[in-house]
Amino acid sequence: MWTNILLDTFTGKLWQCQYSVEGSEYIFSVVINPDVLSTSENSKFTIQPLTSMFQFYLINEETGDMWKFQWSTKGDEYRWIERF
Q1: How many CB atoms lie within 10 A of CB 79?
Q2: 77: left (phi over 0), alpha (psi -120 to 50) or beta
Q3: pLDDT for res 26
Q4: What is the 3-class SS of the chain, one letter each residue?
Q5: pTM, full prediction
Q6: Which of 29, 37, 30 is nearest to 8 (CA)?
Q7: Chunked in runs of 10, what are the mean pLDDT values of the chain (84 residues)?
Q8: By the 8 A CB rule, do 17 and 4 touch?
Q9: What's the confidence (pLDDT) of residue 1?
Q10: Number of domains in the chain
Q11: What domain range includes position 57?
C-alpha cells in the first residue's frame, strides 16, 4: 500500500489517497480537511512532516497560520486536523 496526501495549495483542503497492488478494496481517497481555509487567488499552503509518519503541519505561508493533521489507515476517527 502507498499513501499520499493530496493538498489543494489554494484552499488548504486535504485528502488521504491510498493505492495498493493487493486489490481495489485497498484503494481509496478520503477527506482529512473538507474546510476552505483561504479564498485568495494565491497558492499559499504547504505541508511539513512531524516526527511521526502519520502527522504533518499544514502551513499558510502568507499568514504563518498552522494546523496539525493526521492521516490513518485505521478509520475516519483517526483522521483529524486542528489549528496549532
Answers
A1: 19
A2: alpha
A3: 86
A4: CEEEEEECCCCCCEEEEEECCCCHHHCEEEEEECCCCCCCCCCCEEEEECCCCCEEEEEECCCCCEEEEECCCCCHHHCEEEEC
A5: 0.90
A6: 37
A7: 94 96 90 96 96 97 97 94 96
A8: yes
A9: 72
A10: 1
A11: 2-83
Per-residue pLDDT at 51: 94
Residue 36: name the closest of 65, 70, 10, 61 by CA. Answer: 10
Q: What is the pLDDT of residue 16?
A: 97
Looking at residue 46, its pLDDT comes to: 98
Residue 50, pLDDT score: 96
pLDDT of residue 54: 97
Which residues contact residue 17 at a Cβ distance below 8 angstroms, ignoring those fewer than 6 apart? Answer: 3, 4, 5, 6, 28, 29
Task: Please enumerate in sequence order all residues whose Cβ is within 8 A of that of 82, keeping only pairs 6 or more positions apart, or say none.
Answer: 67, 68, 69
Place of cell 511521526: 52
57 close to 65: Cβ distance less than 8 angstroms: no
